[in-house]
Amino acid sequence: MLRLKGMRGFTLVELMITLALLAIVATIAVPNFMQFIRNNQVQAKADELKSFLQYARGQAVTTRKSYEIDISSWEIKPIGGSAERSIDFSNASTVVRSNLETGVTKLNYQPNGSVSGPATFTVCYNNDFSNGYLIELKRSGLIKMYMRGYKNNTDKLTNCTL
């Protein structure tokens, strides 16, 4: 074939090698990327739950009324009033569990910011406790979210159930 001076290109072998290398890199990267997405989904749900609890406490303090959180429907409302805010935890893969006693579905925030009882919530993806979050709600109303995979500052989570 006649080749013009200064004309350049790639051979078929060079293109095939490049495509093979790209396929290898993609095979390694896709599972890691999927885990990254799942971790971000769990963190987003944990952050959403924490801000939901903070909102309920803030409303109780600023309006000087008692507010309740209905855990069964995830709604915040003043006691005797209608729902002001709700949160959707219907995603089947991200699981939120609490340590509330059987039959107890409500937490009450008092006007001073304290809550009716302490509670602990875990947010996990398909019971993957190593990437789950634990959120503690103290009786004083303080909300503490621990690092991913930890149940306190030093000990790791061992399961997603409480």
From TrEMBL:
Q: Which residues cross the membrane?
A: 12-34
- Locate the coiled-coil region(s) and give their ranges: none
General secretion pathway GspH domain: residues covered: 46-141
Recorded hits in Gene3D superfamilies, A to Z, give:
Glycoprotein, Type 4 Pilin
Q: Which UniProt keywords apply?
A: Cell inner membrane, Cell membrane, Membrane, Methylation, Transmembrane, Transmembrane helix
Q: Which GO terms describe its cellular component?
A: plasma membrane; type II protein secretion system complex
- PROSITE patterns found in the cross-reference section: PROKAR_NTER_METHYL
The principal localisation class reads: membrane
**GO terms classed as biological process:** protein secretion by the type II secretion system
Task: Look up the domain of life of the source.
Answer: Bacteria
Its placement in the membrane is given as: Single-pass membrane protein
**InterPro entries linked to this entry:** N_methyl_site (IPR012902), Pilin-like (IPR045584), T2SS_GspH (IPR022346)
User: Can you say where in the cell this protein is located?
Assistant: Cell inner membrane
Q: Which Pfam family is one of those matched by this entry?
A: GspH
Q: Which family does it belong to?
A: Belongs to the GSP H family.
What name has this protein been given in UniProt? Type II secretion system protein H
Question: Which species expresses this protein natively?
Answer: Denitrificimonas caeni
